[in-house]
Amino acid sequence: xxxxxxxxxxxxxxxxxxxxxxxxxxxxxxxxxxxxxxxxxxxxxxxxxxxxxxxxxxxxxxxxxxxxxxxxxxxxxxxxxxxxxxxxxxxxxxxxxxxxxxxxxxxxxxxxxxxxxxxxxxxxxxxxxxxxxxxxxxxxxxxxxxxxxxxxxxxxxxxxxxxxxxxxxxxxxxxxxxxxxxxxxxxx
Amino acid sequence: xxxxxxxxxxxxxxxxxxxxxxxxxxxxxxxxxxxxxxxxxxxxxxxxxxxxxxxxxxxxxxxxxxxxxxxxxxxxxxxxxxxxxxxxxxxxxxxxxxxxxxxxxxxxxxxxxxxxxxxxxxxxxxxxxxxxxxxxxxxxxxxxxxxxxxxxxxxxxxxxxxxxxxxxxxxxxxxxxxxxxxxxxxxx
Amino acid sequence: xxxxxxxxxxxxxxxxxxxxxxxxxxxxxxxxxxxxxxxxxxxxxxxxxxxxxxxxxxxxxxxxxxxxxxxxxxxxxxxxxxxxxxxxxxxxxxxxxxxxxxxxxxxxxxxxxxxxxxxxxxxxxxxxxxxxxxxxxxxxxxxxxxxxxxxxxxxxxxxxxxxxxxxxxxxxxxxxxxxxxxxxxxxx
Amino acid sequence: xxxxxxxxxxxxxxxxxxxxxxxxxxxxxxxxxxxxxxxxxxxxxxxxxxxxxxxxxxxxxxxxxxxxxxxxxxxxxxxxxxxxxxxxxxxxxxxxxxxxxxxxxxxxxxxxxxxxxxxxxxxxxxxxxxxxxxxxxxxxxxxxxxxxxxxxxxxxxxxxxxxxxxxxxxxxxxxxxxxxxxxxxxxx
Lengths: 188, 188, 188, 188
Prior knowledge:
The structure is a homotetramer. By secondary structure, the first copy, chain A, is an alpha/beta fold. The first copy, chain A, has one domain: 3-Layer(aba) Sandwich (Rossmann fold). In chain A, strands 1, 2, 3, 4, 5, 6 and 7 form a seven-stranded mixed β-sheet that branches. In chain A, helix 1 packs across helix 6. The model of chain A has no long low-confidence stretch (mean pLDDT 98). Chains in contact: A-B, A-C, A-D, B-C, B-D, C-D. Chains A and D meet through helix 5, strand 6 and helix 6 of A and helix 5, strand 6 and helix 6 of D. Strand 6 of chain A pairs antiparallel with strand 6 of chain D.
């Protein structure tokens, strides 16, 4: 089986909802098993799963222009597998959520890419054309925010993860499917 | 008089419309004179005006994830005033347009900031709280895209500059006013 | 008096050494008082000093491609003064250290700029030409790493803060002096 | 045969020297054919080769904080294969040169990554530990600049491509070999 681990932090539930969509997308690929790891309560068994994974997908909310502090704590702790190059050549991808439509989410995705590159990983783009960018487009379009480096979701500051847009979750699921497909192909 | 120059490139008219909004915002500040410079047809007199300016605002469409090639040509040509440090300590700011809601516009603003920093300039943030980020928000809110590093505008791919949202143009005008105010204060 | 606060995190002493150089540079400007705030042990009195400051300089080591987790914890906690816009229009600048010569330090400076922009601050570039970039250059040159968006320092992984290069510390002191000079001018 | 195309712009010969090292590295992989495309004089046959490639490596000097204008002209012209998604799922990587040791080269690599992501490509990190970052390190170490997102080279402003450091060229060759290996594996 190809193993995909989605390592995420969620402050208020929005990023968890997005992570679950990535998970469903990954699981939809034949021969792939996938699971979530909540980095705020990561265990030794989780670290072992990350070492054993074919692909790791990183997800965090964008707070003050970059990934949340609990996720950064996880990133810094990953200097241990970095020294031993345990994650080298694994497939990577990223997703992020914020309340603003654009809102510096690209900053978080760039941060995650630069991080994955330090680990010697292979970064998977979103692989979708942009939606919601013409007079006939709508917020229900796939990739309605026009992201390419990973999956973005926008969630209203006064609503929970259950109110997130289906288009953003389908976009996240697309990324999960894409990452899993690439990981399966490279493992083959 | 405090002098503000808005150096822009516009491929299809959207960024020109945004530049005109920045211009109006700058002109609204007492004691400030402002003008546009189209970098695709820049003259020696324009370069002299840039040297004499208290503030330079940079604006370009986001094409393939960064500022348009004609604008980059202008940036590279500015290595001449860089060698002589002619733009050092001037006030700077930036704006960009793309068809996507988010669409890598932050990448262009980061590129403009890093560029202005090489020139030794002082970068002006947008200075607005985000709009359109709650259940009561709308696309008519000021800063509806949630940008902080400069002014962003989204323009539908199948419509011209005349169809741009008033909220984006008011956001651009706010940036123009803010840059001009800071430049006037520093000149004082 | 113009007040400058240098908010820093240091993991092994290198960034503290760099922060002290920034402090000396800031203090060298007439009419300026400056102090360090260690964000890992920040107090209510420190937050009040940040609110009262004319300029805040941000400094952290680059770990795994972006600012250290303890510094990010401080950034996220600053969402409180952000909601009330307490830091709006203050002068900002940044510095960072890593063991590698280049080593993703620009990623940390970009992260700090985007963060300062969300707060509505004014970003101060380093304002130096690059050193150590020709056949007659050396590691003893001011700005020997060729940074523009803030001050960079390189510190060997197997040596302490006391072994840092004088050229990097002079570069940091230059940034402190430059930030303090701008803050004093804007306060005037 | 697995096809690798190295699309580059070189202003003064340094990036051409680096591109040739990437080329040698790619050619060293069994079953791989590789060639250079000079984007400043790109032909229809070159565009067809890019469409037919398994991997495209992008290389340009860093001018004023981002890739050179001639390279950006090529990037903008690639909106044609983007509309038809011709480069989707190809392997990508990047390299850049500047006179400064750090000198905003990460900004260029980020720009190239964001660009490759828009095309729906798969980004290859450098896959090396950093060199020249301890008291026993030297400028002759592989990855002596400490880059991870692609290959960096530093070339003195007053010397030609023939004076470039062997360590930087070996680092570039490593990237070429790594990209070709991944492309061959994915084609398999």
